[in-house]
Amino acid sequence: MAYATVNPATGETVKEFPTATDQEIKDAVKRSGEAYKSWRNTPVSERAQLMHKMAELYRERKEELAKILTDEMGKPKAQAIGEVMIVAGIYDYYADNAEGFMEGRTLEPSTGGEARVVLDSTGSLLGIMPWNFPYYQVARFAAPNVMLGNTILLKHAGNVPQSAVVQEELFHEAGFPKDVYINIFASNDQIADIVIPDPAVQGVSLTGSERAGASVAATAGKNLKKVVLELGGSDPFIVLDDQNVERTVKNAVMGRMSNNGQACTNAKRFIVLEDAYESFVDKFAQAVQGIEPGDPSDDKTFLGPISTVGARDEIMEQVQDAIDKGASVLAGGKKIERDGAWMEATVLADVTPEMRAYAEEIFGPVAVVYKVKDADEAIELANSSPFGLGGSVFGADEAAALEIAKRVDSGMVFVNEVTGTAPDLPFGGVKRSGVGRELGPFGIEEFANKKLLHTPAKK
């Protein structure tokens, strides 16, 4: 497996890193396991001080850290800075709240006595993280678990190695013991054959594709290891009326095109009731047509390049398949002929089940719009997807929109706003979007030993 920074805006290979040897991977796993023995006994208050220092470092170095994101995966500068600031908030959140979460809850046993369930650490954990939010995805996993007393082995995506390296450096600079967090440039075979089977590793968290999730889950299951999986999404964006169409369109553009359309929780299927369809779609297509992909290092750029040329080409194959089978192109639809991984922001209509765009996740700036007769049909279409990560419902009657949101089969549904994130809001999905939750109080529970402490009734 190659680890290399290839600037998606230019196609230039900037920096390459060697994959670790088998012995280096074995040594890293051993070091992580040894570090756990002492880290688990470090007072939570001391862990919190170091975690707050991490947050400070992210804020102090936001420009530098954001530039790495822009150079490696094409994230527009303003959005890259936004990611850095969200990450700082996650580290602060768990520094402030982990100790309270770990206290657990008191029970009233029917057999008498006193009982309490507390959260305890479990050991070394493996994180397998994607390229689209190189810092945020890591923080969701690492912050609660390091605060809990677990140690981390982190395998990042091959196209963001500098993002991977700098995060390990930040843990060291913040003052964490060296082996509490270890970056490993491992191959997929090394992960399957060396890391997951090792007794020191107690769990695996993966954010990525369905294929990767299924493979890792199978290996983890064979070795009796817990998994958390955050996989794909094909989030519905349901429009009930056009009474606030300008607001709805603004949210639709942001919800689909942010992060260059490369987020699991981007709105991807725009399901519009027929009475609102023409008004919404006309304005939405016009807005998307007006988006000019530009230099991601420019403060004013909203849409940059796709992460890699290969990823861009896969998206274009999905778009062309739909066009060839009768879909209408309302905006964009073409590859941009220049060095790097560029394409136009696109809106497709008249997409039918035999087209790839109907069931597959399109991981780029492509929106698919559907017309439905009523709310029941909107729900039926929304829930027909094999995914169930996020979703949005827009309507002038907020109470009615909320009732529709309750019927969407998804881990997260937002009313009159696009799917978002915050340190204290749980994140995760159902169906083929994965298992488990990150962030909020739930994020610290996934790899915790929910330990029962019981004392007998006093005589």
UniProtKB/TrEMBL annotation:
SUPFAM superfamilies: ALDH-like (SSF53720). Pfam families: Aldedh. It comes from the Bacteria. Residues 3-451 form the Aldehyde dehydrogenase domain. The keyword NADP applies. Keywords: NADP, Oxidoreductase. PANTHER family: SUCCINATE SEMIALDEHYDE DEHYDROGENASE [NAD(P)+] SAD, SUCCINATE-SEMIALDEHYDE DEHYDROGENASE [NADP(+)]. Belongs to the aldehyde dehydrogenase family. This is NAD-dependent succinate-semialdehyde dehydrogenase. It comes from Kocuria atrinae.
